[in-house]
Design goal:
This protein is α+β, with helices and mostly antiparallel strands. Helices cover 25% and strands 22% of the residues. The protein has one domain: 4-Layer Sandwich (Double-stranded beta-helix). The chain is built from eight helices and 15 strands.
């Protein structure tokens, strides 16, 4: 059976049929996946019974993996998964649900804000691939916003204003929005801001996108209050319902998205229920702006 795509979102996201991701893919299938990502920005693969090694093999068939090192508040001896995975579950290394007030859980609540994965790194991520191993009884959806459509819908005056702007991104900025300020000196140094362009151009399609994220906390050359108010307005614009696809998870789903063209956020679910989601990430091709050594 050959690969087929069916659009499921208003202007992005497609379900993929005809592929078994537990088996090695042909070069033609890999090329078709990249082409599907260029067009739809989000691809949904149902009923994929992957183990960790199979997810890694599939991810590596698409490009180089970005390691998840120092991006959460889990200490090295508290990791549940190897650094080839970003652990976006609510489980500790003993497979127990985090207590409601656990600072590791509170920090992870930042995933409920609109963001782009690894925009807080000098070289931001390309694709994210999230596989559902267990899901809660209700809630826990993931929403995706089409940042290409958001750019297209801007008026000419706003496009001209944002075209050359550069923002600073940090997980400190996003967590401050939730009132989380409990950072050690080491964590503050680790989460030092990096610069990203506010408008990106896709290297294959040439389409332009707003590069927004809750991690964006400043605009270079702007007063901070004005910058944050302006960025909030842009996020409100970009996350209107006509730009958003909401994915309702079931066990075995693998969803991959292009961080260069989308934002996403997780939705709430019962705090006492496990949600085991394992993300592999493709490294980006380079920085969006030059950084000092």
């Amino acid at each position: 059976m050959s690969m087929s795509l069916r659009q499921v979102g208003p202007c992005l996201a497609a379900e993929v049929d005809g592929l078994d991701l537990t088996r090695p893919l042909s070069p033609e299938a890999v090329a078709a996946i990249h082409a599907g990502m260029d067009t739809y920005a989000v691809l949904v693969f149902h009923d994929q019974k992957l183990d960790d090694e199979q997810q890694l093999v599939f991810t590596r068939s698409l490009g180089e993996i970005e390691h998840a090192i120092g991006t959460s508040l889990r200490a090295p001896d508290e990791l549940r998964l190897p650094t080839t995975f970003a652990d976006v579950s609510n489980l500790d290394k003993d497979q127990k649900v985090f207590a409601r007030a656990d600072r590791r859980r509170l920090f992870a609540l930042g995933n409920r804000l609109w963001h782009s994965d690894s925009s807080f790194k000098a070289i931001p991520a390309k694709y994210s691939l999230l596989h559902a191993r267990s899901v809660p009884s209700r809630g826990g959806n993931t929403e995706f916003a089409d940042m290409r459509g958001a750019w297209d819908a801007l008026d000419a005056e706003t496009r001209a204003e944002v075209e050359d702007l550069v923002c600073e991104h940090s997980q400190i900025f996003s967590r401050q929005q939730l009132g989380f300020t409990d950072f050690t000196d080491e964590e503050r140094a680790r989460f030092a801001p990096v610069r990203q362009r506010l408008v990106r151009t896709h290297p294959v399609t040439g389409r332009r996108s707003l590069y927004l994220s809750s991690h964006a906390g400043t605009i270079l050359g702007w007063p901070v209050p004005e910058a944050r108010a302006f960025l909030r307005d842009l996020v409100e614009h970009a996350t209107q319902r006509q730009f958003v696809y909401a994915h309702r998870w079931r066990v075995g789903d693998l969803v991959m998205w292009d961080n260069r063209q989308t934002m996403h956020r997780a939705r709430p679910f019962p705090a006492h229920e496990p949600r085991d989601m394992r993300r592999t990430t493709l490294a980006g091709d380079g920085p969006t702006v030059a950084h000092a050594a």
